Amino acid sequence: MYEQFAAIGRDLFVSGAISSHGGNMSVRVGDRLLITRRGSMLGRLTERDIIETPLDSDDSEVALASTEIVVHRAIYAKTNALAIVHAHPIHTIMRSMLDDEIVPIDSEASYLLHKVPVYSLALTAGSSQVAEVVSDGLKDYKCVVLRGHGPFAIGTVLEEAFQWISCLEQACKLLDLKDSLGLPVREYREHGDEYGKW
User: Whose CA is closest to 109, among 126, 95, 119?
Assistant: First the structure.
């Protein structure tokens, strides 16, 4: 399990989805939770950076866990997720400050994500409000975004959750390119106008 955390943590950093000490990840194992340590460098994880704690109660290890543990616990309680990745990709964050939902125009993200909701909350990190809103959103979507903070994505494994974040960031880069050109794009998808209604 440590090798999976280390590999995806490195991918998150190398891809630019997080800063040196940003983001967090977790995996559900039965009634236990494996989550990255508070303030850890995801690109350089060691075995001591993976904290094991109960899924629905606190023990002595919880103080070492990511500050987002309340959000991760709420997501596991309300969805069938087995893995969660939270990152801070810059194009996704910028797009979240422009739109209330992100509707991709590229083929891959259109197929995989359809659209991604953006939530605007006063407290954006580790609050009970974030836990409630994000976990509710992930009942219907693979990935949701907190305005100005970044996406949370769920999957059956860490790689899958990372895939949604990576795909979303690429989609946001393309949306930024479209905006910078100031030109209309040609619709090529069957029922392309329906993606925003997903």
Answer: 95
How far apart (Å, rounded) are the C-alpha atoms in residues 155 and 150?
17
Percent of the chain scoring above 70 in pLDDT:
99
Task: Output the pTM of the full model.
Answer: 0.93
133-179 pLDDT, tens digit each: 999 999 999 999 999 999 999 999 999 999 999 999 999 999 999 99
> Is residue 49 within 8 Å of 65, Cβ to Cβ?
no
Q: What is the DSSP letter of 12?
A: H
User: How sure is the predictor about 96, in pLDDT bands with cuts at 50, 70 and 90?
Assistant: very high
Which residue, 168, 177, 176, is CA-closest to 114?
168
Query: Could you tell me the residue ranges of all domains in the chain?
Result: 2-181
Given a contact cutoff of 8 angstroms between Cβ atoms, the answer to whether 40 and 21 are in contact is: yes
Domain 2-181 sits in CATH 3.40.225.10: yes
Helices (H) and strands (E) in the chain, counts: 6, 8
